[in-house]
Amino acid sequence: MKKLFTALSAALLAAAAFAQAALPSVEGEVRKVDLDAKKITLKHGDIPNLEMTGMTMVFRVSDPALLSKVKPGDKVQFTADKVDGALTVLSIAPAN
Ligand SMILES: [Cu+2]
Predict the structure, then answer these.
(1) Measured in angstroms, how far is the CA atom of residue 42 from the centroid of ligand 1?
(2) Does residue 56 belong to any structural domain of this protein?
């Protein structure tokens, strides 16, 4: 029984790690960068993990340093997820 529980825990941990790593990369275009509010406006394509189709909207960023990597007009690839109830960009980089 204990062995089974250990195996289940390991499987759950692996699944959680996989979910983290598996955030899909999304195409977008930067519309606005707000350093003070730590927010970015992106015109984005489909975001399967958030069940969103393309639109233009504001995201929080997990780390303000992300905002220094991009500027309005840039085509980007990013990942986003819900963090503490807020739609948050977790990674972003210029697309090339
Ligand atoms: Cu959206």
Answers:
(1) 8
(2) yes
Based on the structure, what is the number of domains in the chain? 1
Express each pLDDT in 54-84 by its tens digit: 999 999 999 999 999 999 999 999 999 999 9
What's the gap in Å between 93 CA and the centre of ligand 1?
18
pLDDT digits (tens, 9 = 90+) for 10-55: 665 665 555 555 899 999 999 999 999 999 999 999 999 999 999 9
CB burial of 44-72 (b: ≥16 within 10 Å; e: otherwise) equals beebeeeeeeeeebebbbbeeebbeebee
Q: What CATH number is given to the structural domain containing 50?
A: 2.40.50.320
Q: Is residue 14 part of a domain?
A: no
Distance 90 CA to ligand 1 centre (A): 14
Ligand 1 centroid – CA 52 distance (Å): 6
CA 95 to chain centre: 15
